[in-house]
Design goal:
The protein is α/β, with parallel strands linked by helices and 491 residues long. The protein has 15 helices and 22 strands. The chain folds into 2 domains: 285 residues, Aldehyde Dehydrogenase, Chain A, domain 1; 188 residues, Aldehyde Dehydrogenase, Chain A, domain 2. The protein has a 7-stranded mixed beta sheet with strand order 14-15-16-13-12-18-19, sandwiched between helices. Bound molecules: nicotinamide-adenine-dinucleotide. The site of nicotinamide-adenine-dinucleotide (NAD) has 28 residues, from α8 and α9.
């Protein structure tokens, strides 16, 4: 048994692992007793056998959320904020334990997992503060015949569906604003990573969230369980983070009940480097924008567009930095890049890279799977990628950086916008005027200027075009869980 394997075993034995459904304040097995395996991407071994919720379990969770709804909605905002504040403090106190679970089920590096634990906790802190800042409006009617009151009310029972790549942060980014607004929730975490979400349920219960306010229903049967909830008339909201493909399907389902929808979907982020950029800053920014989470991020730089006069220099320096990254299991904190989530994900990336090289791209570093166990892939840089290469139209979701060139600013913007996605983008230039001009013209919900790290609980995060609807984080995040009621008053 390797050192990493031993540490994983010790971890599982020493920490409490929640592997049942959390419904109405109780831990319960699935209605039909079924369980599914959660795998460790670094070894392929089984981390836990988790209860796989049935459609009846999901509906029971909706019923619990509906029952808890009125009391939670009318609880003092300060009391709702206090629950979130205590949950934030518990997450910080237990960040190591949370990070271990994140590493075990998602495979990311230790530094990324600790970073995620803190980032995820930050949403509870931010929305603990926002809970007491829900403001309506009083408007003058132009005819002076009444007062116009615009009140903000919680939307109601919210179904939250999250992806595997940030098992803690994608959950807290939804639970935080929902609870602050006065909504009760049913969270359906990704089947690859349910353990962190279940730990969050326990942590919120200990922080004082009443039974039924937060319910967590993992399930291997994602389609039927989510569909059943979206068809239940007690549900009023869907907040989804995941692929555009599944998001589109859920939007169609949600239309039956005209549900309020917030959608955080896929991306294909351009990373623009102009000839006046500070090259070192651009290379460091590229490393962060590409390699945070091993490239398994919706805001990962997916297309490197570099001015033709500096492309060779940029490519060489970037490839040199990429080749020095240490790849290995996240349980060893010295490793900087973990495995991909599973074998099919790795096979898809390998195929994309091979196709790209066959189509004329030049391999600067990496390019292949690494020996197992686990789903490791070498950090890869491809230069001279032709504009028609499919890799530029695909969300790579792995440690692969394709570089292509542009001649002038107009071409850079046109190529950056040549995608149906519009989530993140990055611009590197020492001329702030130019950088802002480009930022204004880029069709993306998030623009990083001279930096590769953009995530912040205080910022409104979200996508344009097919990358999504609505914003999470910041002051905007809570409005996604509030509804406006207009009251016309004679007084
Ligand atoms: P996914 O769409 O496969 O799954 C997301 C969630 O939907 C999971 O909980 C999954 O179990 C569930 N799901 C899958 N099929 C379903 C169905 N038929 N009905 C109902 N639910 C279903 O995405 P993923 O592979 O978990 O995550 C990767 C994707 O998420 C990428 O496209 C990435 O860009 C995107 N993402 C976006 C953001 C953002 O903020 N915009 C953040 C993280 C990830």
């Amino acid at each position: 048994m390797s050192r990493a394997d031993r540490r994983i075993e010790e971890t599982i034995m020493s920490e409490t692992l929640f592997d049942d459904l959390y419904v109405g304040g109780k831990w319960i097995a699935a209605g039909d007793g079924e369980r599914f395996a959660v795998a460790d991407p670094a070894t392929g071994g089984t981390v836990a056998m988790v209860a796989s919720g049935t459609t009846e379990d999901a509906i029971a969770a909706v019923a619990a959320a509906a029952e808890a709804g009125p009391l939670w909605a009318s609880a003092p905002p300060r009391a709702r904020g206090d629950v979130l504040r205590r949950a934030y403090e518990a997450m910080i106190a237990r960040r190591g334990e949370i990070a271990r679970l994140i590493v075990l089920e998602s495979g990311k590096s230790w530094a990324d997992a600790i970073g995620e634990a803190d980032y995820a906790a930050g949403f509870f802190r931010w929305y603990a503060e926002e809970a007491v800042r829900i403001r309506g409006q009083v408007g003058a009617s132009p005819a002076a015949d009444k007062q116009i009151l615009a009140l903000q009310e919680p939307v109601g029972v919210s179904v939250l569906v999250t992806p595997w790549n940030f098992p803690a942060a994608m959950a807290t980014r939804k639970i935080g604003p929902a609870l602050a607004a006065g909504c009760t929730v049913v969270l359906k975490p990704a089947s690859d990573t349910p353990l962190t979400a279940l730990l969050l349920a326990d942590l919120l219960a200990q922080a004082g969230a009443p039974a039924g306010v937060v319910n967590v229903v993992p399930s291997r049967r994602s389609g039927p369980t989510v569909a059943a909830m979206l068809g239940d008339p007690r549900v009023r909201k869907l907040s989804f983070t995941g692929s555009t493909e599944v998001g589109q399907m859920l939007l169609r389902l949600a239309s039956d009940q005209v549900l309020n929808c917030s959608m955080e979907l896929g991306g294909n982020a351009p990373f623009l480097v102009f000839d006046d950029a500070d090259l070192e800053t651009a290379v460091e920014g590229a490393l962060v924008a590409k390699m945070r989470n091993g490239g398994e991020s919706c805001i990962a730089a997916n297309r490197f567009l570099v001015h033709e006069s500096i492309a060779a220099d940029f490519g060489e320096r970037f490839a040199e930095r990429m080749s020095r990254l240490r790849v290995g299991p996240g349980m060893d904190p010295h490793n900087e890049v973990g495995p991909l989530i599973n074998e099919p994900a790795r096979a898809e990336i390998a195929a994309l890279v091979r196709q790209s090289i066959a189509g004329g791209a030049r391999l600067l570093t990496g390019g292949a799977e690494l020996d197992g166990p686990g789903w490791f892939f070498a950090p890869t840089v491809l230069a001279d990628v032709p504009p028609q290469d499919p890799i530029l139209r695909t969300e790579i979701f792995g440690p692969v950086a394709p570089i292509c060139t542009f001649g002038d600013e107009a071409e850079a913007i046109a190529r950056a916008n040549n995608t149906e996605f519009g989530l993140a983008s990055y611009v590197f230039s020492r001329d702030v005027g130019r950088a802002l001009r480009v930022a204004y013209r880029i069709e993306a919900g998030v623009v990083g200027i001279n930096r590769g790290f953009v995530s912040d609980p205080a910022a409104p995060f979200g996508g344009m075009k097919q990358s999504g609807l609505g914003r999470e984080g910041g002051a905007a995040g809570i409005t996604e869980f509030l509804e406006t009621k207009y009251v016309a008053v004679n007084w």
